[in-house]
Structure formats: structure tokens, C-alpha cells
Amino acid sequence: MLAYIARRLIMSALILLGVSFITFALLYLLPADPVRQIAGRSATPETVANIRAQLGLDQSFIVQYARYLGNLLQGDLGRSYLQKTEVETLIASRLPASLLLMAGAIVCELVLGLTMGVVAALRRGTGTDNTLMVVSFVGVSAPQFVVGLLMLYVFAVQLRWFPIGGYGTFAHFVLPAMTLGIMGSGWYSRMMRSSMIDVLRQDFIRTARAKGLGRARIMFRHALPNAILPIIAMIGIDVGIFMGGIVVVESVFGWPGIGQLAWQAIQRVDIPIIMGVTLVSACAIVIGNLVADIASLLADPRIKIR
Amino acid sequence: MKNLLTTTALIAALALPQLAIADGHSDLDPDAQYGGNITITYKDDVATLDPAIGYDWQNWSMIKSLYDGLMDYTPGTTDLRPGLAESYEISEDGMIFTFKLREGVLFHNGREMTAEDVKYSLDRVTNPVTQSPGAGFFGSIAGYDAVSAGEVEGLSGVTVVDPYTVEITLSRPDATFLHVMGLNFASVVAKEAVDEAGADFGKTAMGTGAFRLGEWTIGQRLVFEKNADYWREGLPYLDSVTFEVGQEPIVALLRLQNGEVDVPGDGIPPAKFMEVMGDPDQAAQVIEGGQLHTGYITLNVNIPPFDNVDVRRAVNMAINKERITQVINGRAVPATQPLPPSMPGYTEDYAGYAYDVDAAKALLADAGFADGFETELFVMNTDPNPRIAQAIQQDLSQIGITASIQSLAQASVIAAGGEADQAPMIWSGGMAWIADFPDASNFYGPILGCDGAVQGGWNWSWYCNADIDAMAIEADSMTDPDMVDARLQMWSDIYMAVMEDAPWVPVFNEQRYTMKSERMGGADALYVDPVSIPVNYDYVFVTDVQ
Amino acid sequence: MTVADVPPLAAPVEEGVWVRLRRRKLAMFGLILIAATLLGAIFAPYLTQFNPDEQMFDGLSITGAPMEPGGEFILGTDLLGRDLLTRILYGARTSLIIGLVANGVALLIGTFVGVTAGYFGGILGGVLMRLTDLMMAFPALLLAICLAAIFQPSLWIVAMVIATVNWVQTARVLYAETASLSQREFIAAERTLGAGHTRILFRHILPHLVPTIIVWGTLGISTTVLLEATLSYLGVGVQPPTPSWGNIIFENQTYFQAAPWLVFFPGLAIVALALAFNLVGDALRDILDPTQRGRT
């Protein structure tokens, strides 16, 4: 197991290197010129040339990338072109908000998804089952910006149960967390349902019933723990999906996280920030996948370690 | 619409005798109460508070409240008045300015401001290491070229005569020089604070302004606190100003209606505009004013068929400016020329190219394009600009021009405009020109002059008329106060000549609408201040101080 | 079962699928939705009297506000005075074209990468799968936004961008299946008999993969439809005036409090189409490969 983890970590480091290279190359290819943005509209050609030289943007791609990589390995993510603040500072000040949102989304996914899945499994074949499954499907099929805008309109504007976007209290937190979590809850409810059905069919459950154990006890002590294992593994994968989702959700709700930071940076071609956020996201995804794989290994040792 | 500046007022201001004396007492408001805090909201993070770097409409007025420069403006107007300079003298040939500084002006850290600080600040902003976007404004100071090329570290034209006297020598006559001294870029900063903060100076503030920076939580809030030792006696009225960032405009508006916010800094969101103006109670809290802004379509004279002046004139006649103004809920005034109406030098009775589809088609046919042609229209991809572009596209199709819309990120449009042969038409929305200072010349140089028609420049129509350039240089050399009228007339002629060549289609001048809470007091003009956009924080007050 | 018994694609299999599909009500509902969207897209010019690009003077009130649903404009108008129903119908074309093209390309790439890596294994396989891991590490939406910013967005560019971020899942699934298939004895037997790689791939491996490809292909359309809508919503997808359900919301979202129909109707369309493909794809997965039921 340790060897496996070590191998995966090395692989992850290489993957992150690849991500940094490709992202840097893509940003290099952007037709927009960041120096123009920094220099502003009244700058003379000399000023522009000066700024370009100072930022090292007049050098070749390889030189620029090598410099970036060198700084990166020393823990320096550079400075924002337009805000002159260190990228680390900007990301660090906004990351907690995004992490909070993702944590809330996971809670929402699990609570909604697992409940729906278990209920549907127990009432398999009935109208309840069908309804819950349709609801799950709809959840999976709705893009987050539509869900977000609708929830904002219905619950915040019309019903006034929640504030209209923003940050600060629990009330501000509910709608964006739910928006981010609804899609996942649809997946989880269906997975949980089929997982529960599989587990409930198994011998050890029949044995437990034959022994006369109560339904609740069977559920909570025997069925659920086994059914949940594959789900836990999936949570790691969710991180990747969230990384895209927060761009939209933070934009709709005005949530001050790194999604908003990335979106603003892309608009203004603030390359250091874009690089920083992409790398942080890729890190999170890679770690999430690793955790998910380890979790499934632990859950089902029959899966061979490749 | 309130005309905040009349030509005569400006003439009166500039017609002061060569020796100008400041009197900071006459503009205090007798109704003002002292104390209290106001809350302003913005959507985006504040980028920087470094006066040498800050150049967006969000931090422009913030910097004005934290820092001062040699020159200033009478609040709510575009009239120059002395700032940190108590008085100034101009030599006969208009090339040497001698500023006498006020004594006893303190930085926020308690140290007195002297002429050394003025020189330090001007040297700093022109030094290429600072990467200031405003360095070019100081091009007329002697020694600028050497500093800009990195050869020397200080402007030879700025000399400290004694601790309270600064002498600035120009390398060429410049009628806009006093305006330049009123720009944020010319603000006086404290060297020790810059040295201590290094590259993070923009996240701090050390100036002489009416407010000091109290607190800054990145991504959430900034708080300005009253500078009790401010050199303008009796100011500011407020104890503090709180800026909350990350707030959507619609949310800000609702919070204003709830009494939590005093001014939504991003303005009234278009979606709510009609609702707000339709409600008399809310409309009463909205102040409307002109801006020194023009929205326009650039026609690239390098790309056929826009190299044909008749084609450009035909396009001018094809655009239905009334309808486009309707698309943005009437928040603008249709434009006839490059200058906005409140700018001195605006030609009052010029009708421009009237909307006339048939005449446009005829003109196009005469030019040899009876069947029209295909072209591209570049636009920035944030609302409402794609919608405006589509309205323009429809207008063009009426005279046979098929324009495909290229809706891109702002930086990409700017990049395309800066290439000689990439963007045949650009709608300037989102990047439209707002005057840096209230002078007619500011609308010419970078966007219509030959200097701007270079790779990476902002003259996206690549229009370069040497004769008109010569007129512009001549107009800006008219530094003699007796020649103010003649200078304005010359600028008016310049822009009329530009309209003859029609490299642009001026479309509209956006109005500014500032909504404020009921508790805020002060003259209306302070809320649509043409220089300190949107609000002049130094002069406003609240009426509910306990 | 001998080598010769490996069933090629034959009518009996398809008939069984269709019959079983017909029995599932949800899947049929999905098919009906897809058919409705297809018909709406194809016959759009006949279903409405308006042009999707036509900005009508009476499409806006005097103050420039969009018109509410009802009367001449069944679903109301948008902020430029264009009929919403018309734009939604034409928008169906955009969603379907991009959904199908992007998904088709993604499927091709994914199949190529997955099958090649699974069949040949070794270094080639390793490299290809590491490439897949690399793509998976990218936050897809950020990558799509960056790509769209580099290339001036047109319908086809958007489709290619979406395809680029979408082939990974297919590749991984097909890799696993191909790898396990390739190790079966009958393949080795074929090789001994002298069969070339091409023959083995096309006659013996790919046919077994067809069910998986169909399932992922169908489910994938739902993903591409959603991704296109999101990109257009952010302003970096299909550009107006070409209507796309996502860019209708993008253009009109600041008005959603005053004119919620401008967000609600296109939003409903997006959800409906994605849902339809999800329902059909899920049913197909149940039918064609019961061991994968409910798993992602």
C-alpha cells in the first residue's frame, strides 16, 4: 500500500508539472496582451516597453516558463499583474470561502442524496421510488447557473427567506451550498439506491433477518455501512467537478471565493492569478482522486492494485 | 440635465491673474454635521491604492481622498484650484511653473510635507520601475525622456528651491499642465512609507488626504478614517467611510432600500433602473449628472472599404442612436461629436450626421458599394455591449452591410484594436473614453492622434491626419490666459475637422446616476462629481449624527 | 463458446434492446423529449412567424423593457425586442448541433485513446493513460474558458473546445474494458492464427465495446449540452446573435428579477434536453450492461 501511495504521489507531481506547462503555454498563446492592461490607455510606447521588460514578458516562452517553474518550486506564485499583490495572498484570502462552500455542498449532497437513495431502495418499485429517481435525474441534468438563478429568485427575491447573495452569515451560505450540491446529490441518490439494493440482497442480510434482528438495526448496522463505501470513494472525484462549479456558483451568488477570483482574472488576463488558481485546483483534484482511489482500495480489496 | 461646467466658468477660473491664492474656507457647507460613517459597496476587489498605479474608476476617488496633489478641483465642478500648492507663478513664456507649498501640511504619520516629497513623488511616478500607467502624462516636463529611458533617476525639470518651493521647467509649452498636476498620478506620497512597504505599497496608504486608511480586509472591506489634522480646515465631515467589496449591484440596491448601504458604488443596475425611476420616493434619491464620456464606433481607415471617407460617412448616417439609447434604458444622450457636451470646446450647434437610411444607402452606392459588403464588428463581451453590438449590426444590415459580431474579452478587443489590420469596426462600450482630466485635448491624443495610431495603441481607427495633429500641438501651446477662448475655438475646429473625415461614429454620452440614501447630505453636484467619481467623499456628510 | 461464436452486430440484439427500451416509461419520456426538440429545431422556421435575429421595435416597451409572455409574443421578448419562443426554437439547433458534434468528437478521441491503450498496453498504453490522467487533473471549466478565450469563438470552435475537455471518462472506461478483453484467451488464439491487429480490433474487440460506447455516447450528449450552456452563460461560448439557450440567459440575466421568463424558459429547455439524454442513456446502460447498473 505504501509503495502504491508513493508511486501515485510521484505520478501526481509529474501530472501537476504537466498541468503547469500546458496552462502556461495556453496563456502564452492568448492574443490579449497583459502589458497593455497594466500600462493602461494613456501609456506611451516607451512605458509599455519598460513594463514588458520588467515583467520579463519580452523573453522567449522557454525562458519565461523556466523562471516561473523555478519560482514555483520555491513556493513563489508570483504577483498579480493588476493588483501587484502576491498571488499567494490573494488565493489564501479567498480559499477558505471556497472550501467552506464545497464542504457545505458535500454535506448537502450526502444528506439529500443518501436519504433519497435509501428511501428509494427501501420502497423499490413503488411510486415513491420512481418520483425520487426522476427528481434525482432532474438534479443531475440541471446546469448550476440555472439552479442558482432559480433558487435566488424563488427563495431570496420572492420569498425573502434568504439574503440575495453575499457573504457573512449562515443564511448567506445555504443557497450557494445547495446549488453546488444538488447535482452531486442526484448522482449519489441513484448510486446509493443501487448500492443499497445490492447489499440488501446479500446473504448476510438474509442471515440477519433470519436471526430475527430488527429492521432498523439491520439497516444501520449492516446495510448502510456497506452500501456507503463506494459513495465515499466518489467524494474525492467530486472535488474536480466542484472546481468548475464554483466559478459559476460564486459568480451567481457573489461568494468571495477563488472561483470569482479566477473568473475576474481571466477577464483581465491577469496571468499569474490564472496560473495560481489552476494549479491549486489541479492539486485539489489530484489529491481528491488519490483519496478516492485509496478509499475504494480499502473498501474493496478485490480490486487489484495496477 | 445639469450642465456642471459652462465654458465661461472655466474661462473665469483660468483667467485668474498669474498669481493665484487659495482660500479653502469658502466652500464649507453651513448645514453640514460632523461625524458618522457611510457605507459604499462595490462588486470588484480594490486593485490598489497606490496613486502612481491606480487607474480604474473604482479607486480613482478613493485615492483622491487619501492623497493630495499640487492642484485640485473645486468640488462638484471641473474648475481647477490650488491644492497642496498655496499659490503658483507661471513664467512669461509659460515654461516655468513655481509652486509655493502650504506650510504645516502633515502626512498621516505626522511628518510635515515638504518640497522634497513633491520631487520624490514626481520622480517616482515617471520612473519606469514603478510601472505607472500615467507616466506619459508628464511628458512635457524637462528631463522626462531621460528618466523614461532609464538613464537617470530624477527629473531634471523638477527642482527643490527651498523646503516650501518647487520649480518645474517644461520642455515645451503645455496648456494642460495644471490639469496634469491635478491628476492622481501627481499625488504626493511619503518616501519612508514606500520604502517600508516595497511592492505592497498599494495595499497601504500614506498621503496627506482628508482620510487615512484604517483597515483593509482583502476581498471584504476597507475603512477610511478621518484625518483630524487635514490641512483644509473644517474637512472632512465624516468620521469614516466603509467600502464593502464583493457585492453584486442588485444586492447593493436592495441593501440601500433596507437602509444598510448609503451609495451603491457600481450604480443602479440596468434591470432595476426603470423600477427605481418609476417610483417617486426612490427617484428622489437618484442624482443625475453628465459624465465626460463618449461611446463610439471606430472605423479602421487601414481596412477597406473603410479607407473610403464616403463609406465612413454612410455608416455614420446609418446608425439609429435613439434606438441604441433605448436599449440601455435611456441612460445616455445621443452624441454628435467626439467631445461630450459638458467638456469645454464642445461645439454646441453641430448637428453631426443625421440618421438617414436612404441617404446612407445612396452615399454607399456612389462610393461603389451599392450591394453592400461584409465586415466584422468587435465588442467586449460583458452586458450590455453585445446587445448594443447587435443593435448596430441590425442598423448596418439596413444599408447592406453584413457585420459579423466578434464578442471577446476586453483585453482581446484592446489587443485587436492595437493591430493595424485586425479590427475593421470596434464598439467602444466598456472601454469607452472617459476624460482623465476636463480638457478637450484629452479626447484627442491617444485615441485620434497620430501618436496613438501605433501597434498597441488606443487609436483603433488608425486615423492619422498630420494637419490636425499640427493644429492640436499648436492649440496645446497656447498657454497664455488671454488665449483661452482662442484655444477652445481651435479645439472645436479640430474636432469638426475630425468629423469631416469621420473615422468614428460617436453614438452616445452616458449619463451618471448616483443613488444615495436619505441620510446623506451635501450638494447634489458632489454625488455626480465629474472629477472625483462617483462621490466626493471629503465634502459629503450625513444628517443623522447623534 | 468458441471463437466463431462471438456475435457480430446482428438484428436480434437490436430488436431486444428496442423492445426493452419501450417498456421503460422514463426512457420513452426521454425519447419523446428528444424527438420534440429535434422536430422543433428542424421545423423552427415554420413554427414561428419571426426571425430569431429580428429586433422588433414593438418588441420593447417605450422605456425599453422586454415584453411579457402573451399576445403576439407567446413567450415574451428579450432585451433587444426579439421573440423569445423563436430564439428558443432556433437555440435548439445550436444545442443539438454542438451537443452531437462535440460528443461525437469526444467519443472518437476517447475510443481511440482508450482502446489503443488497453489493447497495446505497454509503454504506449502507459503514456496514453498518463495523458488521460493529465487531462483529468485540469479543472474542465477553467480549461474550456481559457481555450475559448484564445480562439475567437464560433460554433465549431466551441464544439471542439467542449470535445477537448470531455473525452476522458470514455477513454478510461474503454481502457478498462479493452484491457480485460484483450487478455481473454480467444484473442491470444486469434493472434496465433495470424490475425492482424486491425482485424482483431474491428471484428472482436470493438463489437463488444459497442454497448458501452452507445451508453457513454448518449450520456455524454447530456454533459456537452450542459457544458455548452454554461460556457455560453459565461459569455465565452456561442456568441449572440446566434441563439443558444445558454447565451439567452447570459444576455438577459441582469433582468431576471424584472423579467424572469427570460431565464426560466431557456433554463427549462436546457434541463429538459439534458434530462432526456440522461434518461435514455441510463436506460440503455441498464439494458445493455446490467453489471454496471447505477454506477458512474
What do these coordinates show?
The complex is a heterotrimer of chains A (306), B (546) and C (296). Chain A is built from twelve helices and no strands. Chain A has helices at residues 2-29, 34-39, 45-54, 61-73, 87-122, 127-141, 144-158, 170-200, 203-210, 215-253, 258-268, 271-299. Chain A is elongated and about 85 Å long. Chain A starts with a helix and ends in a 7-residue tail after the last helix. With 546 residues, chain B is an alpha+beta fold. In chain B, strands 13, 14, 15, 16, 17, 18, 19 and 20 form an eight-stranded mixed sheet that branches. A five-stranded antiparallel sheet of chain B has the order 1-5-6-8-7, with helices on one face. Chain B has a five-stranded mixed sheet with strand order 9-10-11-2-12. In chain B, helix 10 (309-318) runs antiparallel to helix 12 (357-366) and helix 16 (466-476) runs antiparallel to helix 17 (484-501). The longest helix of chain B has 18 residues, at 484-501. Mean pLDDT of chain B is 87; it is low at 1-25. Chain C has 296 residues and is mainly α. Chain C has helices at residues 11-23, 25-42, 44-47, 84-120, 122-137, 140-150, 155-166, 168-182, 185-192, 197-234, 245-252, 261-288. In chain C, helix 4 packs antiparallel against helix 5, helix 7 crosses helix 10 (197-234) and helix 10 runs parallel beside helix 11. Chain C is elongated and about 80 Å long. The two termini of chain C are 30 Å apart.
The count of strands of chain B amounts to: 22
Give me the strand/helix succession of chain C.
Answer: HHHHHHHHHHHH
State the distance separating the first and last CA atoms of chain C. 30 Å
Which bin fits the share of residues in helices of chain C? Answer: over 70%
Question: Number of helix segments of chain B?
Answer: 17
- The global form of chain B is globular
| Major sheet of chain B | 8 strands, mixed
How is the quaternary structure best described? heterotrimer
Q: Which parts of chain C are unreliable, with pLDDT below 50 for 5 consecutive residues or more?
A: 9-14, 292-296
What's the pLDDT, averaged over the residues of chain C?
82
| Dominant shape of chain C | elongated
